[in-house]
Amino acid sequence: MSDDLKELNVITQARYQKAQAAMQVVQAEETKLRGLLNDLTEQEKSGRETMRHDSALRMTGGDLAWNNWIGRNRKILNHQLANVLVRKEMAFRELQKHFGKADVMKTLLEDAESKRRQARQTALIEAVMETKLNCG
Fold it and tell me: Residue 20 — very low, low, confident or very high, per pLDDT cuts 50/70/90?
C-alpha cells in the first residue's frame, strides 16, 4: 500500500469525522430547541388552566399578556429552529459527501491490500518454483 494512499486516507477520515462532529452539534441544537418548544407548550397548557380559574387575571388583562408572551416566545423558538434545520440540511449534505469519499477510500485501501497480498503470494510461489527447479 502506498504512503500517498495512507496519507490521503488520514485526511479523508479526518474530514469525515469533522463533518460528523458538525452534524452532532447541529442535532444537539435542534434537540434543545424542540425541548424548549415542548416546555413552552406545557407552560401554555398550565397557564390556560390557571387563567380559566382566575377571573382577576382575565379582568386585568393578564391572560392577554400571557398569550402575547407565549406567542412571542414560540415565534422566536420556531425561527431559531428553522435556522437550525437549514444548517442541519447543509451539514447533512456535507456529511454525505465526506461519507462517500471515506467509503471510496476504504475500497481503494482494500483493493491495494488485496493486490499487495496477491503480489506477495505470487512472489512466494515463484520463489518456491525457482527453488524446486534449482534443486530438482
Answer: very high
Return the number of other C-beta atoms located less than 10 Å from residue 120's C-beta. Answer: 10
Q: What are phi and psi of 49, to 5 degrees?
A: -65, -40
Side chain identity, residue 77:
L
Across 52-70, average pLDDT: 82
Tracing cell 465526506 back to the chain, one arrives at 98
- Residue 110 CB neighbour total at 10 angstroms: 11
Considering the entire predicted model, what is its pTM?
0.74
The span from the CA of 111 to the CA of 109, in Å, is 5
CA distance 1 to 22: 31
The one-letter code for the residue type at 85 is: L
Locate 11 and state its grid cell.
Answer: 485526511
Identify which of 85, 72, 70 has the alpha carbon closest to the alpha carbon of residue 34: 85
37 pLDDT higher than 90: yes
Residue 1 has pLDDT above 60, yes or no: no
Q: Which three cell numbers stand for residue 42?
A: 406545557
Give the rounded distance of the alpha carbon of 124 from its chain centre. 46
